[in-house]
Amino acid sequence: MSAPLVLSDTVNLAAALVIGLFFGFFLERGGMGNPHKLTGVFYRTDFAVPKMMFTAILVAATGLCLLSDLNVLDMSRVYIIPTFFWPQMVGGILFGLGYLVSGYCPGTAVAGLASGRLDALVTTVGIGSGTLLFSALYPRLEGFYKTSDMGTSTLPELLHMNHWALNSIVYVLAGIMFYVMERNEHRRQHPVVAKKILHAAS
Amino acid sequence: MNRRGFWSPYLAGAGLGLTLLASFVIAGQGLGASRAFAVAAGTAMNVVAPVYTATLTYLSKYIERSPFQDWTFLELTGVLIGAFAGVLMSRSFKVQIDRGSAMSVGTRVMTAFGGGIILGFASRLARGCTSGVALTGGAQFALSGWVFVIAMFASGFLFAALFRRLWS
Cis omega (within 30 of 0) on the bond before A4? Predict the structure, then answer.
């Protein structure tokens, strides 16, 4: 077991900056600084967000399964995102609304800002304000915030399933999803081209 | 190649997935974003109104150190620079107020700000955002990530049906 690496604070913070560079670069190159592309999924015109997101999840999840099985990565030392079922369900619902209305999420707002979008700048100020609003209301929200604590529950544990079995299921589901999205996008974005091709063939 | 000159989302997604995996291996944690906003807003608030900020117990964990000692704040600083590098590479930098074709500038400023407030609030409630919970938790097969991502997409589809003219 050698990873996660044991780094000094300074090196770890420098690594954060470098990891962020790649994160931002890939977000921007995938079109994730553009609010039309970001919201296209909800209007079923552009599925770049779920395609990019689930590709990233599959690549990283496969890597985690592989590296932990090879004893390269000690998962007990990796910070697992804790589950608070109801706050995360309600948080996710509110987040979907905020994402649709603003056209961004916190990371992509920064990518939008980098491309010169002033609306993204306004959204970053809004996100900071929303954070302060939550902090101000926290005494009243604390009860709900701490309900349904399920710790570091993972799906393989809850479903009593090998992580490779689950990984395979996610691959199949994502494959079906990508196929449906490609068909849907092609029909909506190129109705004229599709007609022309049909016409030329006949 | 996309018509707007972006990469294929599968290629960009694979790069993002490898970045996330590298983060687990190097730092023992995944990616994040909304935490950096809590650090930045909390620090700013602490400068403007230190007495009031001291009463906000929830914020204390975000302002106990300098932002430049905070992993996620530095990572998000990297996101800004990395995204800017991508913009320079494609020569697509353009100062603009991006909005749906039927929307005025004034309305756009309000939706950008109001939507942002909801995002900031929701991220604190859910203990993270698309980066920290959906992407990172999703890749860990953590229940949190999958609950959040399903709730987020379901809600987005529902509200898009109600607000059809927001972006189209």
Answer: yes
Residues B32 and A144: their CA atoms lie apart, in Å, by: 23
pTM (2 d.p.)? 0.94
A11 token code pair: 């090196």
Reported ipTM: the value is 0.96
Interface check B14 vs A, CB under 8 A:
yes
Nearest-by-Cβ selection for B108 from A113, A119, A153: A119
Q: pLDDT digit string (tens) for B51-85? A: 999 999 999 999 999 999 999 999 999 999 999 99
Which pLDDT score is estimated for B2?
43
* Record: contact A64-B156, CB cut-off 8 A: no
Round to whole Å and give the CA distance between A51 and B147: 18
B76 near A18, Cβ under 8 Å? no
Are the CB atoms for A131 and B121 separated by under 8 Å? yes
Give the three-class secondary structure for A42. helix
C-alpha Rg value of chain B to the nearest Å:
18
Taking residue A157's Cβ as centre, other Cβ atoms within 10 Å add up to 14
